[in-house]
Queue: 2 jobs
Job 1
Amino acid sequence: MMTETQPFRLATGGLVDRAAPLNFSFDGRAITGFAGDTLASALLANGVRLVGRSFKYHRPRGILSAGVEEPNALVEHRSGSRREPNSRATVLELYDGLVATSQNRWPSLRCDLLSVNSWVSSFIAAGFYYKTFMWPASFWERIYEPMIRRAAGLGRTAPAHDPDTYEKATAFCDVLVIGGGPAGIAAAVAAGRTGARVILCDEDFVLGGGLLGDKADIDGGSGVDWTRTMAGELAAMPEVSVMGRTSVTGVYDGGVFGAVQRVSDHLPEPLPHQPRLRFWRIVARRSILAAGAIERPIAFGNNDRPGVMLAGSVRTYINRYGVAPGRRAVIFANNDGAAGTLDDLAAAGVDVAAVVDSRDGSSAAVSVAAARHGVVMHAGAMVTQAYGGHGLRSVEILTSDRQRERISCDLLAMSGGWNPTIHLTSHLSGRPRWDEAAAAFLPGSLPPGMTVAGAATGNADLNACLASGAATGLAAAHDCGFSGRLPSWRGHGSGDGQCHQPVRPLWRVPGARGKAFIDFQSDVTTDDIDLSVREGFGAAEHAKRYTALGMATDQGKTSNVAALGILAEITGTDIASRGTTTFRPPYTPVAIGALAGHARGMDFHPRRLSPAHPFETEQGAVFVEAGAWLRAQYYPRPGETWLQSAEREVRTVRGGAGICDVSTLGKIDIQGPDARAFIERIYCNNFAGLKPGRARYGLMLREDGFVLDDGVTMCFSDTHFVMSTTTANAPVVMQHMEFHHQCVWPELDVQLTSVTEQWAQFSVAGPLSRELLRRVVDRQHDIANEAFPFMSAAQVTVAGVTARLARVSFSGELAYEIAIPAQYGDSLLRELMRQGEAFGVCLYGTEALAIMRIEKGHVAGGELNGHTTAADLGLGKMMSAKKDYVGRILAQRPALRDPERPTLVGLLPLDHGSQVRAGAHLVASGRAANLENDEGYVTSSAFSPMLGRWIALGLLASGNNRTGEIVRACDPLRGTESLVEICSPQFYDPTGERLHG
Amino acid sequence: MADLHPVVQPLLSRSPLDDGFDPPGSQANSTAPGVTIRLVRDRSATLIASGPRSAAALERRLHEALGIALPGPGRCSQKDGIRVLWQGPARWLVLAGAESGTEERLRAIVGRDAAVIDQSGALVSLHLEGSRVRAALSKILPIDLHPRVFARDDTRSTAAGHIGIQIVCVEDTPCYLLLIPRSTAPDFARWLIASSAEFGVGVE
């Protein structure tokens, strides 16, 4: 393939590897750059200046900056399922085969039809949406919303499932250094030399920060050489970790920082077993913010034309990438940085047409430089307008004597001063403070343990950066108990003084013509700010919402301060009193995948598997999520629907024997001299009389008197009980009991231990269950009806292994629950099934379990819903009058004792074929189905194989007195309704004869 | 009639990691693994929990019988193949060989001074070592494993995502023992393998 030349690449210089060409494509065009390039530098090297279209007006946009602040050069990176919109070309590290596509244009970047928006822009200024799409209301959903959605947004998300993986990780250190420029490196070296654990995070792919874009020298060598020496020293320190390509994005309580590491974004695709991104939670005892500063644009007419760039970025392209961003330049600045810019442009062979310094009078530094290079100097002048469509062709300036002059150029290097990068200082509500001398916001109150070094303090002088870095690094290490010497370096940067100026704020050029942009990415102009103030949105936070300024993916890094300055100008106040908008994490965008990490797809949350899960899988179980557990829902035979399977399972249990895995029930071991006293207080019913070898159904209330949970508790001795809870409530019950143990009755000597994981447990139910168990439980244990009646509990053995057996029933049949240490659970279930073959035993799942409990009117999740009292559930008599227990007092509240409260009832559809669904509301016959007439609702429903019809349980006002009444069960959500007869909730075997079989 | 039924078979002990523990694709880079994972099969786990009134007596009894001092918060102690882990105020977990009848032996030693509760089936034990094991665990555990703060015989109960686990520093080499709730072991193991894969992972 023929590679194009790179007409704007300088013959020498920069940190790119000219021996390592990299091929990439932009909008389908094959282009070549070098290793060490960003996409932006490679595009500029090839003379590509038009990179994207703006969000609202679809204006042609180029490259403004050379860093994370970039608002214009946003592209779609990669293609297909890896496509990532709004990737900043200025930080996108070039690799061989990179594919980038411009955004927000149709049909092509050069010819974009929606650029007509620019012509109608006076109709779509800030607030346009709020005003225009108000009426008619019928248009909101069908016309306006689809229309806005189509026009809104920048870039397209990937069309398919992301094939990459992501990770989250935690790191700990004594000192976290944020930023790898001269201050950050100095801090890390100073702290690292003491032996402290140091993490240095740098968002760039090469360490050095501002040194890379500058012709600086330190201790007689170049700044880049110094960086390499220091990087070598840091790499050799065992307790120092330098994390490149890592952006610290947030500060959180307790010295916790969020950081995203771009592990593979610079590769065609991640290496095997490597994630694309890794999100770090860094816990640091001390932190040093050395994040540098971001240059400010100036608002003048058409200041968004490709070719209008930040001056410092122009220097970065020259010095770091060996690229001249233009042939003929004009410099427009309000500070002494113009001198360094002029030096670098001249050194790169760029023809500088003029230096326009907005400050009145002459600046010595700038005029000396202009004279040195023989460049025309316009003091007290301003650029009012840029010309050129897809690329800058000339600028118009207004000189100090009010003359307008056109200067042809293809590059404008502008500088409105610098904003220290103080975002992270504000994440814990710290407010920055306005510094009049620096004409910038400086760090105000800091997060605990944080200090600020380098240009982020407002002083970008190289020696000051090195000194403040070394001092803060050593101090931070010292705070962590380490000691060492203060390192000292002497440096000189051509950018010395660049930041602390003397600067005179220039937010917008008076008399500018054409759109003067402040927020390039949100397409917010100076006129929008004017409009916002006129319409009453003059406060910083209001203007932000009204205009959307600072709300794009760049979060207003180049625009927020300018907007505040303009607001202050318009309202005649000073910027310090205007307040600021709030910086919040993340500092730079974080892909949502990085925040999910491993927790995705089947790993979204850990699933709890029963000990017998392997056997149940072999038996064809269909599993259902029950909390974190996977439970066997039913075991379909070939051709069976879930309902047919569940019906067969019910008939098999009621006709012979079935086995259900109930390992998921919560199990709490309760031991100690006060174990019984503790249980007495936790349960509302009596446990004083429960003898060893017996089990009892218990009901537990919350402190507020409502039912919390139910379950069976076995007594093995006066000091040893084992309680079971429902699957869903197991953690809540444990928490409830631990709370009362630790905080309410610490005097009780009782030990609570969750043994849910320790015991596999199976319900063996049906008339033949005893005969089946007789085959399995070791012979010496007598489980005959007389020896082991209903509600017995005992420790037994199975093939010599200790097990626990209780005769309890949820199905209403003769039934047992057998528990065995979990490691034997799978084996025991296989053995039960093998022995049960002669009895025609089957496995049954949660569907059959639910059908049988509804047939018996036993309450479960639908009824134990946190809104029901014991009396509501027909269990009021269980509440002991002879003792105190949790919930007793508040259960006496009048509303909880109201006889008209909804109570548990059975419901039978009059039409045998019709189904009543859970969730349907109950309304008295002949009344309208509305909220006013609502008398309760259906909590559970099932098709009863034994009754051959649908049955349901519900909660109905005054339900106890309404047996035989016909009410309407209305389900407006699913559009169904049926008439149901109120009956006893015990549908099947109401006298409980089968239980004792 | 009874003779027609099959004789009860001995019950087999089974680990949830018996199936599917081998990581797909990890063999390729396991020649010099940075992380080696071994499932510890033959060990019992027994919880000793006592009340405030009997903790001192318990400590004395155990020391007399086993020669082991009960460790304080965040620590464990060991002797003759028995390892005792602090698990909370007046709670210790005793790890020992599988066939030692530890539960009965401990019950005899502690008498009425503590509850003795078998947790052998509740916990899956993984033994981890290798030069990159700390890097792998940094993707799973939110705690600091640097030897300056987590050294030999230190232990922590902590959260691996939604899974509560306990970790012991067996050796500073480093070498760790992880105790994982049985029901979550397959998902935990998959996470561990995925986190270790980039360093090369060997499974024993």
Job 2
Amino acid sequence: MKKQHHIALGLITFLVYVFLIGPLLIIMAASFGEQNALVFPGQGFTLKWYAQVFQMSSFLRAALLSIEIAFAATAIALLLGVPAAYALNRYRFPGKNAVKTLFLSPVLIPCIVLGFIMLRYVVNQWNLSVIPSLLIGHTLLSVPYVMRVVTSSLANFDFAMEEAAGSLGAPKGYAFFHIVLPNIKSGIASACVMAVINSFNNVSLSTFLTAPGVSMLPIEIMGYVEYHFDPTIAALATVMMLVTLGVMLLIEKTLGLQTVV
Amino acid sequence: MKKRALRGGVWLALILPGVLFITVFMLIPLFSILFSTFSADGSFSLDNYGKLIQSVYFQQVFGRSVRLSLLSTVLCAVLGFPCAYYISRYSKRKGLMMALAVFPMFTSPVIRSFSWMVILGRKGIVNQFLVNVGLFSRPQSLLYNEFSMTVGFVQLFLPQMILSLLGIMDSIPEDLTEAAGSLGAPRFVAFLRIVFPLSVSGLVTGAVLVFTGCMTAYTTPQLLGATDTQVLSTMVYQYAMSLRDWVQASAVAMVMIVVTMLISSVFNRLSKKINPMAT
């Protein structure tokens, strides 16, 4: 069907998108201003705020920690979630629904509550230090993504293929790694992307888990903007948004954005 | 397959690590805080909840959370619906429009709240504009109040509303509206009688996401609100981190869990029931 025009709807959509994207563009523009205060529209053009961001060791340290935790937590979530998702699709056993619900349940608990129980029990009661606690908390955040996406990829997988490999003499593990895994790898990839992004951007859980010199990037930024109002953060935000854009382009080229969201 | 299942053991080994992990690090702590809220001096009591419910401060905070979440949900629905409809039916660049909705979703909520601090601040463009137009005689603080929090919430969760509406609208066959048109129904009537009723389930799904999101969001109220505009999540944080009052923090946390779970289970069930496209 030929697409028609609808001017009023088009205008509303345009304005809504200005509301969604505009603030982010303003941040990007403000990061190049020469004034010490963050204003838009700014004057002049400078890259000095970018130079400053890369000299602030606290941000760099926090960014590194955020990246490490995001990837490590996602890896652990895969190790816990993929075998479970496989078992749920492959075997018959009692209490399947309960198990699936359990693996999806962390998403039902508000992150702020997860953060609170991490602090209350894992840190204060069980005396784990902050970094392992962050890793545990972020693993909890990632497990539901892995479970949801991998079970739905396995639902489309024909287990007869695995049976065939087995009857041709392939050992169980071999069949899993060479037949099952390659067939669900795009599902696993999109689960990883979502889990890593979600972990990297998380505030509510990480805000409870800080120690001197140890905090996640979003928490470090929040602490900074409560007291400072200069374009350094705008520069940092621009760098982060460019990375996000890069990741989105990569997803679009490989998995297709539609499969991820 | 049946034989394998009977041999057993394998499935248990596969699910056990995850089950243990979630049980130890989430379920046990959750039940522990649940029990801690129901005891005072070692015996069962409802005192903690009684104290909470009777506290005027908590009533205000709870009321504010519900009010702002409802308002933001309505605004997201009102803004998101025409957008999703336009993208689904008229837009020539659907992929791009979706990507532009996903981009803010993937951007840190800290950055998105911070952008409103820049825009709504005393030196921000909104103030400049309002002073230039003559509406304000001098810049007013538009930040750290319920207004800025609502703006932040709507911008934070609108993409989710648009995407869940798009999901359902794209599944409505265009033939339906075309058939209505060829039978003489004006476009608006076709929209009202066909597209809208078929989209309601997507609207409900989106509304649940926005409402529970707002009820539990922490970054936006922390950055765009103030101490006199606390919501449930900032209250949990304050009780836990500043006051070190574990029991009251736990009680507020439980209230959050119960409210969000109740709302999402009731409305998601409703959404499934009213979706005529399902099954």
